[in-house]
Amino acid sequence: MNSKTDPNIVPTRYWHTLEDGRVQCDLCPRECKLHEGQRGLCFVRENLDGEIVLTTYGRSSGYCIDPIEKKPLNHFLPGTPVLSFGTAGCNLACKYCQNWDISKSREMDTLADQASPELIASAAEKLGCRSVAYTYNDPVIFHEYAIDVAKACREKNIKSVAVTAGYVNPEPREEFYRYMDAANVDLKAFTEKFYYKLTGGHLEPVLDTLKYIKHETDVWLELTNLVIPGYNDTEEEIEEMTQWVVEQLGPDVPLHFSAFHPDWKMMDVPPTPSSTLTKARAIAIKNGVRYAYTGNVHDEEGESTYCHQCGEKLIGRDWYVLTAWNLTVDGKCSKCGTPCAGVFEAKPGSWGARRQPVRLRDFAA
To answer: Which of 25, 128, 144, 196 is the most buried (most CB within 10 A)?
Structure first.
């Protein structure tokens, strides 16, 4: 039985008691209503002694140094390494989840690594990482842990990156993004039908999150759309989605069209043809998206960044390897001087495509 003396169990703020004695979790739009001892759909938030607690504080499914482009973030400290980690569970139920062994885990021994926020920040610094990413599963559900890690990282000038579906209620969302520096939000589709049938969620809260991040915070924002054949790949939907992005978020928010590969409960769906992604990218550019990309396929043109004014290749990419850099020290096109939207340093990083698992226990004092 869980106990509040367990260091991995911490109290949370976003809940209230209902008239029938159940406790409602107010973290995300699911608003799970829980009897004593019950856990929400995310599996990591539980009604314990009449309040909602997080049961996985300080525990992770593992740590890995990734290229920042893998998140994917193409306009945030390009070429630099990011220390990535996740926990277990998720507040959505995507039938095609490609991290289902983590996000749908019901075994706490999946969380093999344990680390304090201070240890994570210290390890990131020693490993030369410019940022820490909360990823693999959605950081919304380990809200308290992610914020504490971000606070510790901020003290060492290490940035925090949220890789998320954006399915969170307004009050916790405001607190969470106060401590984030960049986010890649998975805009899974642009129809309520898709969200309800394939994720168990709803579209509108995600759109609200996108508008909040873009217009109410200083967080650098990029979007990912996983294009699934037969489900969200029509030209009509991509037209509507990209028009909304430009109208509501502006032309400078990068949009990544990513290839689906069969997984979990959708093994019968074929992979996304690269031609579908190329067409989606073309539609986005036509509709005014200045930085549209293809992902999960080998496509140097679709992976690279171009000046929206003169067409100069600003950042060349071959998978996660930078092959060209034509930005000035202040982030402008070296040919015509037009600014490129993003968070850039004078020189790019040189991490490349490496993916390096690490054990944080090796960095403990």
So the answer is: 25
> In this predicted structure, what is the pLDDT of residue 7?
83
Q: Give the distance between the most distant pair of CA atoms in the chain.
A: 66
Q: Give, in order, the Cα–Cα distances in Å from 217 to each of 71, 164, 179.
A: 20, 16, 10
CA atoms 131, 132, 137, 141: torsion sign: negative
* Domain boundaries defined on the chain: 10-54, 59-357
Q: Scanning the structure block, which residue is given the tokens 């004593």?
A: 36
Name the pTM for this structure. Answer: 0.96
Contact predicate 231/237, CB 8 Å: no
Tens digit of each residue's pLDDT (9 = 90 or more) over 184-193: 999 999 999 9
187 contacts 225 by C-beta, under 8 angstroms: yes
Q: Please report, as a single letter, which amino acid is at residue 27.
A: L
Task: Classify the C-alpha dihedral 347-338-74-144 as positive or negative.
Answer: positive
Q: In angstroms, what CA-CA distances link 216 with 221, 295, 358?
A: 12, 28, 35
